[in-house]
Every structure is written in C-alpha cells, then in structure tokens.
Amino acid sequence: MAQTRAAIRYAKAIFDLAKDQKSAEIVNTDMKAIANAVSTSKDLSDMLQSPIVRTATKKSALLAVFKDLNKLSVNLIDTLIENKRINILGDVAQKYNQLFDQSQGTQVAKVTTAVALTDDLKTKVLAKVKELTGKDAEIESIIDESILGGFILRVGDIQYNASIANKLSKLKREFTLN
C-alpha cells in the first residue's frame, strides 16, 4: 500500500512537470515502454527488486534497455535511485499512463475473454464501454480460458461480467437455493 501511494506521488510529480514542459505525450510513450518491459520481463523486474544488484548497475541497465528516453524520464530514474525507490519504477510508469489517459479523456478497458478477441466482439465491447461510461476507450485484451466464453469487462471502477462461467455460477446458486 505504501509503495502504491509512493508510485502515485512520483507519477503525479512527473506528470505535472511533463505538462509544464509540454512533453507529457513523449514521457507517456517512455512510461508505456517501461511499464510494458517491467511487466513482461521477469529478469528486469527481478533486477529492479533485488537488493543485491548495485544501484549504479540498475541505472546503467535501465539506460541500456531504454536508449531514447526523454530527459524527464531519465530524471525520474535518477530520482528513484537517489531516494532508494527504483523498485517501484514499473508502478510509477503505470500510474503515469493512467494519469495521462485521464487527462486526455480516454480510458483503458480491460477485456478478459476465453479466446482472442474478434473484430465483432471488439465492436460490441467498445459499444458496451460507451454505454456504461459515456466515454471512448482503448482495449487491453486478457485471455483466461477459465471463463469458458463471453467476456469480463473492467473500466475503472466498473465491472461487467458477461462470462459463461459467471452465468453457470448464477444458475448453480439458483438451484441450490430452491
């Protein structure tokens, strides 16, 4: 919880600074790359979390992986290292992306399906997001075979569960109550 609050504070600070310098979009691109790399690369994540790896090594590795970072993004890495908080870099990057999306009036809809999304289902999901929130959204697709079919939609605080597993669970509850 404390790390989440710290990540939000760092993200807000870098976002405000980037807005003032009119480079919020460029920094957002950097933060997307960082968040994606940290979440998909176990080695990178482990290196950031490791108390054994020296901070100088962490910094040089990050700058080698992310070669074309904006000056503000490099300053964020320096600040996190200086404050012994480099382990939350991925969280800060995710929070920054959320702040940027909110400022642009867009949102990310996480769609969990049993199979890859078809174009038809994407259209239906985007229509449902528009109906629920009144805003447009980008779709982040998650595949989870345990839901059997249908989809689970999460947009901000709203969750819409149209999965077959959920419907079967409801039927089971109805039969056990009667």
From TrEMBL:
One Pfam family matching this protein: OSCP
One GO cellular component term noted in the UniProt record for this chain: proton-transporting ATP synthase complex
Matching SUPFAM superfamilies: N-terminal domain of the delta subunit of the F1F0-ATP synthase
Mode of membrane association: Peripheral membrane protein
Cellular compartment(s): Cell membrane; Membrane
Matches recorded under Gene3D superfamilies: N-terminal domain of the delta subunit of the F1F0-ATP synthase
Family of this protein: Belongs to the ATPase delta chain family.
Function noted in UniProt: This protein is part of the stalk that links CF(0) to CF(1). It either transmits conformational changes from CF(0) to CF(1) or is implicated in proton conduction.
Name of the protein described by the UniProt record: ATP synthase subunit delta
Source organism (scientific name): Aquaticitalea lipolytica
